[in-house]
Amino acid sequence: MAAADRLSETFAALADPTRRAILARLALGETSVTDLAEPFDMSLPAVSKHLKVLERAGLIVRGREAQWRPCRLDPSPLKEVDGWVEHYRQFWEKSFDRLDEYLRVLQTKEKKRGPRKSK
Amino acid sequence: MAAADRLSETFAALADPTRRAILARLALGETSVTDLAEPFDMSLPAVSKHLKVLERAGLIVRGREAQWRPCRLDPSPLKEVDGWVEHYRQFWEKSFDRLDEYLRVLQTKEKKRGPRKSK
Questions:
Q1: Within 13 Å, how many C-alpha atoms sit on residue B26's CB side?
Q2: Which one is predicted more confidently, A111 or B50?
Q3: What pLDDT is recorded for position B56?
Q4: Which residues in chain A are closer than 8 Å to B59, comparing Cβ atoms?
Q5: Taking the CA atoms of chain B, what radius of gyration do you get in angstroms?
Q6: Rounded average pLDDT over B19-27
Q7: Under a CB-based contact definition with an 8 Å cutoff, are residues A55 and A64 in contact?
Q8: Cβ–Cβ contacts within 10 Å for residue B19, how many?
Q9: What is the DSSP string of chain B?
Q10: Domain ranges of chain B
Q11: Which residues of B touch A84 (CB under 8 A)?
């Protein structure tokens, strides 16, 4: 798959709060589908559907054991998301720099004015 | 909108290579829809459709001038994506640490063995 399409598939898979919650759970360690389903108050087929989307996007890997198919997080697609969003980081870091500069100007003014008189 | 749903909308808007290309173009500066459409070999209505998705997700802001409605990038939703993906950064940073450690072990072995004999 082209890198661009892979990224689209990753973003599409992440565009759902339940799927993001599943990833957050798997970040703590691998677990069974039954244990994954528990906190969501969802049917197993509904959870399985979400897992299939995550698996297709390469965000999770599932064990091949017949009885217990543990799910594990695969962070590689998230690393690509991180790499993509990095190009835009300059925008808020710049804003932060401007805020920082503004605060410095305020502090300088404050110092020039001297300590405030107490009432 | 709840923060979780906003994030879902952002991810859904980013799940398209053309929309990501539009954002990359806007990262260079605000521009008109006509100029935006040019490199994509797309009809203006097709581009407008993408812009509407980006606008709804808060990723772009459009000017209100009747003749020229410049598009501008709004990085705030991307900052949220960055904040979200940050929680997973430990996974590849850990792998990197392991690689780093492995390289150190290799170098130590190399030193113990001494310089290679030239043939």
A1: 27
A2: B50
A3: 96
A4: none
A5: 23
A6: 95
A7: no
A8: 22
A9: --HHHHHHHHHHHHSSHHHHHHHHHHTT--B-HHHHHGGGT--HHHHHHHHHHHHHTTSEEE---SS---EEE--HHHHHHHHHHHTTHHHHHHHHHHHHHHHHHHHHHHHHH-SPPP-
A10: 3-76
A11: 20
- Residue among A7, A79, A85 minimizing CB distance to B82: A85
pLDDT at B64 over 90: no
Judged against a pLDDT cut of 70, whether residue A1 lies above it is answered with: no
pLDDT in tens, A46-95: 999 999 999 999 999 998 766 677 899 999 999 999 999 999 998 888 76
Burial of A68 by CB count in 10 Å (0-12 exposed, 13-18 middle, 19+ buried)? exposed
Q: Is the whole model's pTM more than 0.90, yes or no?
A: no
Nearest-angstrom CA–CA distance, B7 and B20: 16
Which pLDDT value is given to residue A108? 78
Amino acid at A54: L
How many residues can be counted in chain A? 119
Contacts of A87 in chain B (CB under 8 A): 24, 27
Top-tier CATH class for A3-76: mainly alpha
